[in-house]
Write a structure and sequence with these properties.
- Keywords: Aminoacyl-tRNA synthetase, ATP-binding, Ligase, Nucleotide-binding, Protein biosynthesis.
- Residues 468-540 form the Leucine--tRNA ligase RagD-binding domain.
- It holds the Pfam family Anticodon_1.
- By secondary structure, the protein is of the alpha+beta class.
- The protein folds into 5 domains: 12-58, no CATH class; 62-233, HUPs (Rossmann fold, 3-Layer(aba) Sandwich), CATH 3.40.50.620; 241-418, Orthogonal Bundle (Isoleucyl-tRNA Synthetase, Domain 1), CATH 1.10.730.10; 459-591, no CATH class; 595-704, Roll (Ubiquitin-like (UB roll)), CATH 3.10.20.
- Helix content is 42%, strand content 13%.
- Strands 15-14-21-16-17 form a 5-stranded mixed sheet, covered by helices on one side. A 3-stranded antiparallel sheet has the order 3-5-4, with no helix packed on it.
């Protein structure tokens, strides 16, 4: 802040220019220049900087700058940081030397001893692109006659004005036919403005800002010709380090293609980063990318070879509908990311997450099987979404699908209707299953031994009860309601200190104060993940219905025989269950039903099926045992294909060598309605058929029907 003189009370930065001019006018100061630091040439010599006569472009001129700012504000820069850098450059950029006396370049029209320097001479050349194919004669040098018969010397300023300015008059002194110039004018009007200019972030301070300025200067009265988008990117790191030949950390484009394939390299490049921060090409990720692409191709081949064995009919199961919505969601998200030039995000949603949706669908439909139409649709959508990044793999998959024509000529997929609530319910299911598996792991951990005793092993659970809450416990409801009110009041969730202060005033929370803030923090993290719906007191879907529709999946993933679903407001629920259980967070309790181990042997010749030990509980059915085996042997897709046989002599039967052409010799078929009776105390199993009991001994036979 100035403390004396006529500028007293004003900021130094605001009056610096005026004060400088005042001192020079009074001859109390002279302008003095020196370089910021020592300048060394590429040949290693120390440079002497000389101030010579020079031509400048006055980029700081008020009207011109205002147009440039206006153009920037109407432009898509894709990242806020890029726009901020442009604004900063527009603020400090003023006179810029635009000419030099050596090198290649165009002569300055009004002073031909000077050449226009490269940065000032390369800012509207894309306007020439629009008509270059008509003038160059099919060669890069333009040394051959063109189809229009136009010579370079005929392209006068008046001719260019007619091409570039919509309302310009036809040049009077030109010998070029009007039809030829009208053709070039149409080409220019069709292709302009520049929709997107891609370049490095280091050129924001010069070339890209000049690009904006000069378009505004060339078309001051036609904003439709101003640039529409600039995408600035960072530099490329290799394995998290700057590329350097001297240090050996270097990879050329040709080497990358040879090492990782074209699509493997493109996949890794897309995954290396989107923002103006430096992207990071990691070779281990490129290796992993090749494997993912190879695995996808092999999976497509496998599916197409067995497609007629897949389920057909209506696509109306819960998991069919979820898969349809998730495919449509990924199409919409990926299309949006491509439009925003966010290739890493497009790869995430259009490849990794879409593949994860496929994997989830496959896992959830192990019993009924995947639907043929949906899987073929998935392969088609996957190929299309990945085609901009991995065109060769996409084309190969397109051919495997026996599609006509090239994939690059195919229409981009359009997203159908998306059931957001259904998608959320599926996410809830997977998160709940993950939580249950953690509970199961903790449940089966050996109990800590007491003094002088060994660790106590926990028997594997056979049953589970999942408790579902219709509402939050009262104290949690109070916390959520208060947090929602504070969010509405402040426009955002305030600091935890403010929340804690507000909650401490609630008398109903005094009993739970030790648990209140951990719950607040957990809710904060949930808000970051799913948004403000984390503050809702109820869910948008029926938890009981979602879990019930996927009960077989839950039984398989938890490897239990049976799961019961109950509400936490049931009289059976104890206080702990009611406290631990809340909407969106079901609580699981595992238990082990008394049972007797029974050896089940497959006697089929070269079947590939193994011997299993099943746990037989009192009253178990044939179907229950078949389900146990199918969970252990993933080759068996349908439990109903398993048939059981008991030995006529339970003592001698298992000791006889099996007959290959008659694997059930000496055995009796066990009918579907038979019931197993387990004597837990004596560890024996009997079979009850219409009231008659048959001892089974220690072993029975199972056959898998083809």
């Amino acid at each position: 802040i100035m403390v004396v003189g006529e500028y007293k009370g004003k900021k130094v930065q605001d009056v610096k220019k005026a004060l400088q001019k005042q001192l020079i006018d009074k001859k109390e100061a002279v302008i003095y220049y020196e370089p910021e630091k020592q300048i060394i040439s590429r040949s290693g010599d120390e440079c002497v900087v000389a101030l010579c006569n020079q031509w400048y472009l006055d980029y700081g001129e008020e009207k011109w700058k205002a147009d440039a700012v206006k153009a920037l504000n109407n432009m898509n820069t894709f990242h806020d940081e890029v726009k901020k850098n442009f604004m900063a450059t527009l603020d400090w950029l003023h006179e810029y030397a635009c000419s030099r006396t050596y090198g290649l370049g165009t002569k300055l029209p009004w002073d031909e001893q000077w050449l226009i320097e490269s940065l000032s001479d390369s800012t509207i050349y894309m306007a020439f692109y629009t008509v270059a194919h008509l003038l160059q004669g099919g060669t890069f040098k333009g040394d051959k006659p063109n189809a229009l018969g136009i010579k370079p010397e005929q392209m006068t300023p008046d001719v260019w004005d007619y091409i570039f300015y919509k309302n310009a008059k036809f040049p009077a002194n030109t010998k070029i036919p009007k039809e030829s110039l009208d053709l070039m004018k149409r080409e220019f009007e069709y292709w302009y403005p520049v929709d997107l200019r891609c370049s490095g972030k280091d050129l924001i301070q010069n070339h890209l800002t000049f690009f904006i300025y000069n378009h505004c200067a060339m078309w001051p009265d036609d904003e439709s010709k101003w640039p529409k988008g600039i995408r600035a990117n960072g530099h490329l790191l290799l394995n998290s380090a700057k590329m350097s030949k001297s240090e050996g950390n270097f990879l050329t484009l040709a080497e990358a293609v040879g090492k990782f394939s074209a699509d493997g390299m493109r996949l890794c490049l897309a995954d290396s980063g989107d923002s103006v921060e430096d992207a990071n090409f990691v070779e281990s990720m490129a290796d992993a990318g090749i494997l993912r692409l190879y695995t996808f191709i092999e999976w497509v081949k496998e599916i197409l070879s067995v497609k007629n064995n897949l389920r057909v009919g209506p696509t109306d199961t819960y998991n069919d509908k979820v898969f349809i919505s998730e495919m449509n969601l990924k199409i919409r998200e990926t299309d949006d990311h491509y439009n925003k030039m966010l290739f890493k995000e497009a790869l995430r949603t259009g490849f990794f997450e879409l593949q994860a949706s496929r994997d989830k669908y496959r896992e959830l439909t192990l019993v009924e099987g995947m639907h043929k139409d949906l899987i073929l649709k998935f392969i088609e959508v996957q190929a299309l979404l990945m085609s901009p990044i991995c065109p060769h793999v996409a084309e190969h998959v397109w051919e495997l699908l026996e599609k006509k024509g090239s994939i690059v000529q195919e229409k981009w997929p359009t997203a159908g209707p998306i059931d957001d609530i259904l998608v959320k319910s599926s996410c809830y299911l997977m998160e709940a299953a993950h939580t249950f598996r953690i509970f199961l792991k903790n449940h089966t951990q050996p109990r800590k031994p007491g003094k002088g005793s060994s660790a106590q092993l926990v028997e594997k659970p056979s049953h589970a009860t999942i408790w579902i809450a219709k509402s939050f416990p009262p104290w949690q409801s109070t916390v959520l309601t208060t947090m929602k009110q504070l969010h509405e009041k402040h426009g955002a969730l305030p600091d935890n200190k403010i929340i804690s202060s507000e909650l401490s005033k609630k008398s109903e929370l005094k009993k739970y104060m030790k648990r209140v803030m951990p719950f607040v923090q957990a809710t904060r993290e949930k808000i970051d993940s799913i948004g403000l719906q984390a503050l809702n007191l109820t869910l948008e879907f029926d938890e009981m219905d979602v879990l019930a529709k996927n009960i077989i999946y839950l039984e398989n993933t938890l490897d239990v025989e049976s799961i019961q679903l109950k509400y936490s407001d049931s009289p059976e629920a104890n206080e702990k269950i009611r406290e631990e259980c809340c909407p969106g967070n079901p609580y699981v309790i595992f238990s082990t039903q008394p049972s007797v181990p029974l050896l089940v042997v497959n006697t089929q010749h070269q079947s590939g099926h193994f011997t299993h030990i099943v746990r037989v509980g009192n009253g178990d059915s044939v179907t229950k045992l078949a389900t146990q085996i199918s969970r252990a042997d993933r080759q068996i897709k349908d439990p109903s294909s398993i048939q059981f046989w008991r030995y006529e002599d339970p003592e001698l039967g298992p000791r006889k060598m099996p007959t290959f052409n008659n694997p059930t010799a000496g055995a009796v078929h066990i009918e579907e309605d038979a019931v197993f009776k387990a004597d837990i105390e004596n560890k024996k199993v009997e079979l009850s058929v219409n009231g008659t009991k048959y001892p089974l001994g220690s072993q029975i036979i199972y056959i898998v029907e083809q």
